[in-house]
Amino acid sequence: MGKAGDILKQVLEKYDITQYRFAATMGVDRTSVYRWCSGKIDPTGDTILEIVRVLKSMDPDAASEFVNQYLGHELEE
Question: Which of 15, 31, 37, 39 could form a disulfide with 9 if both were Cys (CB 3.0 to 4.6 A apart)?
Answer without folding.
Answer: 37
